[in-house]
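Q: I have two molecules that I believe assemble together. Could you output structure tokens for the complex as a whole instead of separate predictions?
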Amino acid sequence: MTRLGGLILIVNVVVLPGLATADPLPSWNHGEAKSAILSFVERVTEPDSRDYVPFNERVAVFDNDGTLWSEQPMYFQLIYAIDRVKALALRHPEWMDSPILKAAMEGDVEGVLAGGKGGLMEVVMASHAGLTIEEFKASVRDWLATARHPRSNRRYDGMVYQPMLELLRYLRAEGFKTFIVSGGGIDFIRVFAEEVYGIPPEQVIGSSIKAEFARTSDGTALRKLPELNFIDDKAGKPVAISLHIGRRPLAAFGNSDGDLEMLQYATTGGGLRFGLIVRHSDAEREWAYDRDSHIGRLDKALDQAGEAGWVVVDMKRDWRVVYPFELQQGP
Amino acid sequence: MTRLGGLILIVNVVVLPGLATADPLPSWNHGEAKSAILSFVERVTEPDSRDYVPFNERVAVFDNDGTLWSEQPMYFQLIYAIDRVKALALRHPEWMDSPILKAAMEGDVEGVLAGGKGGLMEVVMASHAGLTIEEFKASVRDWLATARHPRSNRRYDGMVYQPMLELLRYLRAEGFKTFIVSGGGIDFIRVFAEEVYGIPPEQVIGSSIKAEFARTSDGTALRKLPELNFIDDKAGKPVAISLHIGRRPLAAFGNSDGDLEMLQYATTGGGLRFGLIVRHSDAEREWAYDRDSHIGRLDKALDQAGEAGWVVVDMKRDWRVVYPFELQQGP
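A: Yes, here they are, computed for all two components at once.
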């Protein structure tokens, strides 16, 4: 802030790199998906457009797993949870009484997945509960710094999608407020969302276990409890959007049937709206899966995309680059 | 956005009214409370201060009832709920079977309050449930436009505190993000918070009943259910802050024991922190109540204020003006 001649003058000058005619989405190949994004944004932001939307209504919501970063061979948060159960196993002999936790301790992923959603929740709760939120975040931060993805041998938070990073940045430059609305854990995502996606913690919505306010030796904290609070998936997504944001989003981005109701909610408001599905079609650079996958199943939402007018991104065809590290490797 | 010479240039020039040396809090009398606010803000925002806090950590949380607007003779939302129960009474003969709803239908406020928190919830649920959130908001908007406070004969949303409006504006001008954290209903407050307080819906946190995602004749909606979701009061406030904001606030503002844990949470983080309690000491211009009041009881928090270092605002002594309409009336 500069104090000039008795006036308080706040001047923010943001100069985007390159020319105004430069492509805001350089990692997207030219095609229908890219054109649809650019056209939508132009129509809602040009002041003399009949589809113009004021700044405070420009809300865009993004799923995380499979939409902003990869989710194979399984949700990254589950890999963290299993790693943590393994590390804590010696302190919890009682975990041997649970087939699911026993499987987790032995690194038997199939055994964990065999328990369905209940099994996932059991592993998440065993690994998360009892920690204060600050301790939990430190634990995730340590894990992100040391753990490596089995196929890429990269940090997990390096396996975000370069085209989606560009899309987030582009929307924000055009006055959108960007939110994550994920089935994953709200505090897990908050550890890296600000640095990696430019999305602050208050714009991250996700699943959660309950927490209680506690006095600690040096003050106060929130401590995680082994009790489910909210599953932010399917019809839970519009419910959470309404609770946390309080506005119907103008645009929604997802990749699976877990995002179906969020896409419906965003795109059935009045006026011009935008829905987009990332389809995992690239077995070489990423993964190829849809209707038959246990993780990120895309079936009903794909059937409804045509009639609803949602853009379906074919990762193989539409993305010139998948991960940021491809750019660092040079041509 | 202006496109100049191939560059995208975003220039925001915010010129605050008056001189740089002008008082950002003109409705606050000079005294300890005002000095403490100005000193805190200066210490955390001056770049060369050893208490400097970066922009993204500048989070300030405000209670609503009794902190940003009046709450006497009872919470304004309860007046709305009773008005609505009365208006709907003919359509709900079954409400006569409930002593609480019968009292509400007859405008017997004492009878409603005699039911304690359970009674309040019964009236709120009867009046809110079944509506989509959009219908509910329209109903609150209509009520705000027509209902008048029994003492001031003003619109309820005209009974906000001018000194707190100035404080909200001042904090935002100094880079703070301002949030409401209220025991009142999240969707009720969102109807007027953006226009009256400059606080967008996504920065309003409050109590809520559950909602479900529903298909409607013309699209989709969230429909309120007659089931409690969350009470954002006492130890619930830090829990909600953690869930919605995901950061420990740097400053907290309240007026009752319902804000005690929020004040504790905000002011026990590391570094310089700020807590403030509005004490209702002005029976002439507003109301005078504290330890013995059923609404907005201030007892434990007042006892702890000294040791915790929280500023206690004496409304009668510290506020030159209480309501904005006093300014419109001229000197």
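A: One point stands out. Chain B has two domains: 5-71+160-329, 76-146.
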